[in-house]
Amino acid sequence: MSETIGKAADAGNAGTTSDREIHLGPLENYIGFYLRLAQNASFKAFKRHTGEGDLRPGWFAILSLIGGNPGITPIALSRASGRDKSTITPVLRDLMRFHLIARESVPGDRRSYALSLTPAGKEKLARLSEHAARHDAELDALVGGRKAELLALLRRIAAEID
């Protein structure tokens, strides 16, 4: 039986793709497809928890990594977060624009800089951390006693296919 997404078409109305169920076809069995759906759903739920309309995907992770590693360089941050330079640069620019992070020059290396949280960044991270803990508890409830197994599989995927 094929999986579908979306609304069922009204009886007697063939409808367009936008108002009837979408057949997933081969996507039905693709792990990557469901990883993306799960990531999107998780971010939407996290954003609802925070009530922050300006929150962008990845901000919590980036702030956490900088907060836990003051002086981290963008290259090290890029590696740790799994983002390439083209996606980390706009995130850092946004976080600087909102005065959540600061950059300082690295002695002996004019091409790089060190990142740290500002006082506002520390406050934002503390607030987001509270929401993240509640959000993660909801995810824990969904996966039950299989969290360690799920995390191990996700870590393996990240390590072996990157």
Roughly how many Å apart are the termini? 33 Å
CATH architecture of the domain at 52-161: Orthogonal Bundle
Total beta strands:
4
Largest sheet features: 2 strands, antiparallel
Which topology of the domain at 52-161 does CATH recognise? Arc Repressor Mutant, subunit A
Mean pLDDT: 89
Radius of gyration, whole Å: 20 Å
What share of the residues lie within helices? 55-70%
Can you put this structure into words, describing what you see?
- 56% of the residues lie in helices and 12% in strands.
- The chain has six helices and four strands; from the N terminus they run ββααααββαα.
- The protein has helices spanning 31-50, 59-68, 74-81, 85-97, 119-143, 147-161, and strands at residues 4-5, 22-23, 101-106, 109-117.
- A two-stranded antiparallel ribbon has the order 1-2. A two-stranded antiparallel sheet has the order 3-4.
- The model is unreliable at 7-12 (pLDDT under 50).
Brief write-up:
This protein is 56% helix and 12% strand.
Could you name the key traits of this structure?
162 residues; mainly alpha; Arc Repressor Mutant, subunit A; two-stranded antiparallel sheet; two-stranded antiparallel ribbon; 56% helix
Any chance you could write out the topology, listing elements then pairs?
Blueprint: E1 4-5, E2 22-23, H1 31-50, H2 59-68, H3 74-81, H4 85-97, E3 101-106, E4 109-117, H5 119-143, H6 147-161
Helix pairs in contact: 1-5, 2-5, 3-4
